[in-house]
Amino acid sequence: VLSPAASPALESLRADLLGALGQSAVLVRPEDKAGFLTDWSGDWTGDAVAVARPGSVREVRACVDICRRHGIAVVPQGGNTGLVGGAFPPASGKAMVVVSLSRLDAVRRADAANATLDLDAGCTLQKAKDAADAIGLQFPLALGAQGSCQVGGNAATNAGGVNVLRFGMARDLILGLEAVLPDGSLWSSMRGLRKDNRGYDLKQLFIGSEGTLGIVTGLCLKLHPKPATVETAYVGVGSVEDAMAISALARAELSELVTAFEIIGTECLPLARLVDADLASPVSPTFPVHVLIELSCGRRLDGRALLEGFLADMLAQGLAGDAVVAQSQAQARRFWAIREGLVEGQARRGYHVRSDVSVRLGDVAAFVAAARAFAARDWPDWTPQVYGHAGDGNIHFNLLPPTGMPRHEAQAHGRRITEGLFAIVEAFRGSISAEHGIGRARTDAFWNGLGAVERKTMRAVKVALDPLALMNPGCLIPLAKESA
Amino acid sequence: VLSPAASPALESLRADLLGALGQSAVLVRPEDKAGFLTDWSGDWTGDAVAVARPGSVREVRACVDICRRHGIAVVPQGGNTGLVGGAFPPASGKAMVVVSLSRLDAVRRADAANATLDLDAGCTLQKAKDAADAIGLQFPLALGAQGSCQVGGNAATNAGGVNVLRFGMARDLILGLEAVLPDGSLWSSMRGLRKDNRGYDLKQLFIGSEGTLGIVTGLCLKLHPKPATVETAYVGVGSVEDAMAISALARAELSELVTAFEIIGTECLPLARLVDADLASPVSPTFPVHVLIELSCGRRLDGRALLEGFLADMLAQGLAGDAVVAQSQAQARRFWAIREGLVEGQARRGYHVRSDVSVRLGDVAAFVAAARAFAARDWPDWTPQVYGHAGDGNIHFNLLPPTGMPRHEAQAHGRRITEGLFAIVEAFRGSISAEHGIGRARTDAFWNGLGAVERKTMRAVKVALDPLALMNPGCLIPLAKESA
């Protein structure tokens, strides 16, 4: 095990990187690297020999070539907004180089006729959304981190978010991809075709590979028509079961017009108020479950009337207890501020148990009940915070530690809580990562949960594309010696 | 090169298969095998040592084990409705065994709450659609061959069809997949989760792999709400450009409600009349392009009013010349009979040049013009037949040979015509296979059109999963010696 500290071999590597990229693009001093080696939540801090910031695809290839020649692994990094610690090396272990894509941020081609957007991987998601908007279309991927996260990271982690219900995850929104392979060659499928059935769809491998097969350098994104109207409702509901029933009816009666269907456990509201003390619940907090519904429509559809009609029916059927349709964009933003504030509010509370699990749609209510029962029984001092993309069966079942519990103590408990939650997920045959990915935080739990054939097949693909284990080793696929 | 004719080694293989599957499930006599060794169009006939018809996943694994032990390759076969000759071995060359999935045809689980359908790969697409219908949902994949093609084949070829515009290709409709790998082990991702972001999404590799990585034995299909109303219009248009403009406006103004947008070159109508002499064109045949639009809506949406309003606007803007909205399901079926009849009509004409290409949406009109110009200049005696899924940029540019031209002569010309068409596609940076796949018919053209990095990467994946080249060798990936 090489330490990232100075050594002649590492000095030689740094010199080669400096020669290829120039002084300002290779960070080696701790204070310069720091911003790339701690995640936003503060849960993890890592280390790296250097942080390289290539400014072109050619320079990305040069970084990979140099690292390979030196036998040093590479960790690709986008906006460093991931939630599972996959974008930088651990603080101890093998020396690695972080390759940050943030300087690779040009929009290459915005094609309204083809409804596609070609761009560099380092563009932020917001920049992609703005570029789509500028040609009268939309890129529907929507995440809290969209101002900072990068589309290359969205691709590498198969990002989800609040619009998955209608538009799918990043995987469903990517028509083409370009990546630097571990041998330095450039793989590309950037023709921008909506249908192309020629052989293995290898871009699907890079999507969700978390930097373990190559470095995504470019994308062709699939754009959608911009809705003429977006209508938002906030609904008070008596149970998760009722929320799921409303979700199924909304899809059936309103076709694919529903763009978001979020559930919020009422216990989460104080979190949102940590961010904005003026946030008022649009419906009574006595409803145990709140639901945020968004409908997006083309100009021939009367979204307001559709949503109001649907909700009136839900109230009449007793599935909804109260419902408010936003009368203005400002009011809709206030509804969303509750959903978004609770994520930020959690972060302000400091360390907390975060999860991102999914089960079959028919099991969502039973899963939430089982997880709540587990928390109440085994961790009564912790406060569950339950919310998520219920229409996809994706629940964030989080827990806040008792106020004042020291971080290290909370983290130790947190690992056991997570194990308990994951056991419940497995009992439901669910997923321990619905959208956040695996990273380094979940690699062990992920790998231990796989069957022998799945492990063997996944490793075979990794070895086929990255035989020297140069790309983000230890993330997603355990190092070979650890998992024999 | 082993001949499929009798030899002690092959007799031993057959004996092992008979021992594992029983007499009735192993076909060795030419007259018994024949139905599995000729494609429906009659363009290709192959040969095989035996056709094995396993009745369970366990028996599929036994077939693969036996063939591997004997060093004999396996060609998986679904409904044998493919259009590119990928489902049986060539008539000369290595001895291979066809493994037909047709006896593996149970519906395993229909789950309305989860909106999923688990079933054996050998179920016909129609059986899957009926099983979805029985629980009040729909499986939207729709193909002419749906009564015969099998869902395993749909997965292995990433089938497309007329509803791709809204619901995507087979890839987008498969939540889980089960496959027997070349080493006989069983890989599975059948949890039925709408979101599951744990590691490489390996089912994406099997989808579209055309039997070269394993044998698909089971699928979890994603179901959609059944529409309350389906409205169909038949429109006369002055040009492909105008049809593409209408397509873009329909998507923008009517959101994702448009389920089909098919263009039909007016020259195709006589073909449909070969199948049904009473078929009348709903609009004047003087319009060079006819368009079939289908809108599918949930019960809160007034599809008829939406479609009529949209078409009135298209007429007022001069983009459409005439439009008829079907007033009954019977009338809608007559519209579709034109679209479906032209495919069957072509087949009745015997050999013809079939293509299945795609270009960027903004290039569709220019591509069609260029291909028509090529045909008129170089092949004036051949009759172009242009139709396709214009909303996806997917055009079937076909040509009928002059009446009376002997089949072998037409086929020889056909190869040159196809080469010319593919050169035009390449000039547009399009795809030579938008939805039909590669099979044996397109392997050379496909492989020659790839760059070195794409070839190397695709072969690396093939070798990783099928190191002994046991699965459908020569399909999709050329045999190693042929492509060094």
Number of helical segments of chain A? 15
Strand line-up of the largest beta sheet of chain A: 15-12-14-13-17-18-16
Annotation, overall tally of beta strands of chain A = 18
Biggest contact: A-B, 95 and 95 residues
Q: How much of the residues of chain A is beta strand, in percent?
A: 15-25%
Share of helical residues of chain A: 25-40%
The quaternary state of the protein chains shown equals: homodimer
The profile of the biggest β sheet of chain A is: 7 strands, antiparallel
Could you describe the 3D structure shown?
Two copies of one chain form a homodimer. With 484 residues, chain A is of the alpha+beta class. Helices cover 35% and strands 20% of the residues of chain A. Chain A is built from 15 helices and 18 strands. In chain A, the strands form four sheets. In chain A, strands 15-12-14-13-17-18-16 form a seven-stranded antiparallel beta sheet, with helices on both faces. Chain A has a five-stranded antiparallel beta sheet with strand order 5-6-10-8-9. In chain A, β8 and β9 (186-188) form a beta hairpin. Chain A starts with 7 loop residues before the first helix and ends in a 19-residue tail after the last helix. Chains A and B meet through β9, α8, α10 and α15 of A and β9, α8, α10 and α15 of B.
Give the topology, please.
Two copies of one chain form a homodimer.
Chain A: H1 8-21, E1 26-27, H2 30-33, E2 50-52, H3 57-70, E3 73-77, E4 96-100, E5 107-111, E6 116-120, H4 125-134, E7 137-138, H5 151-156, H6 164-167, E8 174-180, E9 186-188, H7 203-206, E10 215-222, E11 224-225, E12 229-237, H8 240-254, E13 258-265, H9 269-275, E14 289-297, H10 303-317, E15 320-325, H11 329-348, E16 357-358, H12 364-378, E17 383-389, E18 394-400, H13 407-427, H14 443-448, H15 452-465
Parallel strand pairs in A: 2-4, 3-4
Antiparallel strand pairs in A: 1-2, 5-6, 6-10, 7-11, 8-9, 8-10, 12-14, 12-15, 13-14, 13-17, 16-18, 17-18
Helix pairs in contact in A: 1-3, 9-11, 12-13
